[in-house]
Every structure is written in C-alpha cells, then in structure tokens.
Design a protein that fits this description.
Layout lengths: L9 H25 L5 H27 L23 H25 L3 H27 L36 H27 L3 H28 L21 H25 L3 H27 L12 H4 L6
Helix pairs in contact: 1-2, 1-3, 2-4, 3-4, 5-6, 5-7, 6-8, 7-8
C-alpha cells in the first residue's frame, strides 16, 4: 500500500490539527501587525512569516480533504480587526516572532519524530527547515537592532572534572553549588518566555471585551510575574544577568484588535507550552531545590490552564480535538 493511501495515525492527525489552529491564529496576528509595523526589516520578516503560515494552512486543508476529515474552524477574519489602533511596538513584534518561531521548531521536530507516513514526514521536515530559516533571520535582525538580551557567560574551567560528592544534588540546606550551564540555560529561556507572556497579557487585558476574560488574563499576569520573580531571585543569588522585560513595548490602546476567543487561545497555548518547557527543565536539572520549584510552578500553571479551558468551554470557544472511538458507549449497543 502506498504511503498516501495509509490512514493518518493519531499523532499525525494531532500534529496537523494543532498546526491548523496555531497557523490560523498566527495569520490573524500577522495581518494585524503588518498594519502597524513601520520598520522595513521587521515588515519583511512578517511578510515571510505570513506567507509561510498561509502555505501551511493550505497544505493541511489539502491533507484533510484527501482524508475526508472535517477541516477545523480555527481562526478567521472574524477574529481580527486590522483597523484597531496599534497595541504593540515594532520591537515587541520582532520579539514575539522570535519566540513563536522557536516554539514552532520544537513542535515541528516532534511532529517529524511521531509521523510514520512518508508524505507527512517530508512535509514536517520541509516546514521545520522553513521555520529554522525564519528563526535565523529573526535573530539576525534582533542582533542588528540591539534587541538580543544575551544569556550569562560562564568562566572557562582549567580542566575536565567529575562530580565527587552527592551534595552536588542538594539545594535546600547549607551551601548550594553554583548552577550548571544547563540549569542556567533553562531558567534563562523560561524567563524569556515569561516576559513575553507578561507583555501579551498586559496588552490583552487592556482590550478584552468580557470581564471574565479580563479577570482571567489579569490573574495570568500575576502568575507570570510571580514566576519571573522566583527565577530572578535564583539569578540574583548567583550574580547572573536576567533577560529584559517587554512590558514597556505595549501601548495604551483599549480597542481590541482580536476576538476574546483568539486571545484566550493564545494565552492557553502559551501556558501549555510553558508547562512543557518546565518539564524539560526539570529533567536536566540536578539541584533538588530547583526540581521542587519547577514542580510547584508547574502545578500553578496546570490549575490556571484548567480554569482557562473551562472558561473557553463556557463561551463555546474550545474546539474539540480529534478523539478515539468511544468504545464504552459503543459496546452498550442500541436500546431495544
């Protein structure tokens, strides 16, 4: 049987379905941003990002049609008001694209590794390559404009060494060892992402139409700021520099460019990705106090995400992902 005649597996279906929602949301964000971005270098990158997202949506629609699978609703022109006043400054838009392309790389790499069909694997390899190029160009522009907050630089060791004591793993009592490069890298990246979360939520809270949505987003801002404080305390103790904040790049506009549904999806997506990266950080850290901190922070995000899902369900905004057959109900048979 040819690969294209094989039915999509659950992971393949999940990747395509998730990508469709994410890219339709990105299209709304990009076309609004292009109404306001003045810097020609940033405009050029956003035009490319918009073109890529549109091509991805077309490809996923084609694959779903071939499978005779319902095309998700995702996000449409109804979810964006391109004529709304500027909500973010040009520098923020560049920073946003940097992190969104980075998150895309992580997701596309996973999609390649969980796909079986040759055409799906080839598609995600192509998408991954495109996103790598976009990410690379974004970093170059950020460097040119002095917008890159470089992570800490470590001193060079005199020689290779090995851990000699189990105290290397401790962290609650007594002298804590310095952070490893891996631990610093993860904390830096998680702070960088949280700075984006805060700026997005500050902007979204100003323009949300629903009081419930506004309260939910404001609660998320407090959680994100709390997590930033936790990470910054660790870096202050280690005398390490923290990434820059981006709240100052939010304007004072109160007219919404996006539907509450889109903003809730963006907040939920960012929260879920943060949970995933906290899990990755937990797996490579070797200090018990850091492990405990990540468990605590992850628990807070899980509760926040669940409340967000309930709010979306209440408003009819949570699109149902592909489900397995309900064998329990099917096995009950038809009533006589």
């Amino acid at each position: 049987m040819e690969a294209r005649n094989l039915p999509l597996t659950a992971p393949e279906l999940a990747s395509l379905w998730t990508q469709y929602l994410s890219d339709t949301m990105s299209i709304c964000f990009f076309i609004y941003a292009l109404e306001h971005i003045e810097d020609e270098d940033i405009r050029a990158i956003y035009h490319k990002a918009l073109e890529l997202s549109r091509s991805h949506v077309e490809k996923v629609e084609e694959l779903f049609k071939e499978e005779d699978y319902p095309i998700p609703k995702g996000f449409t022109d109804e979810d964006v008001n391109v004529k709304a006043p500027r909500l973010f400054q040009d520098s923020f838009y560049l920073y946003y694209l940097y992190l969104m392309s980075l998150q895309g790389l992580t997701g596309y790499a996973l999609s390649v590794s969980t796909s079986i069909r040759e055409d799906i694997r080839n598609y995600y390899i192509e998408v991954n390559t495109e996103t790598m190029e976009l990410f690379d160009q974004t970093i170059d522009v950020m460097l040119t404009k002095g917008l890159v907050s470089r992570p800490p630089v470590l001193p060079k060791p005199n020689a290779v060494d090995f851990v000699k004591k189990q105290s290397f793993l401790t962290g609650w009592f007594g002298e804590r060892r310095p952070l490893t490069a891996m631990e610093i890298g993860d904390i830096t990246f998680n702070m960088t992402k949280m700075n984006l979360h805060v700026a997005l939520k500050v902007g979204f809270s100003q323009v949300a139409k629903s009081n419930k949505v506004r309260k939910f987003i404001n609660r998320g801002t407090k959680i994100s700021n709390k997590h930033l404080d936790e990470f910054q305390d660790i870096f202050r103790e280690e005398k390490l520099n923290s990434p820059m904040s981006w709240q100052a790049f939010v304007t004072d506009s109160t007219e919404s460019p996006f539907s509450d549904k889109l903003m809730m999806y963006q907040v939920q997506l960012s929260t879920q990705i943060a949970i995933a990266f906290y899990g990755t950080a937990s797996s490579v850290n070797a200090r018990r106090d850091l492990a405990a901190k990540y468990i605590k922070l992850t628990g807070e995000l899980l509760l926040y995400s669940e409340d967000g899902a309930n709010l979306m369900i209440e408003n009819g905004w949570l699109e149902q992902p592909p489900l397995a057959a309900d064998r329990r109900n099917l096995s009950k048979g038809k009533k006589e």
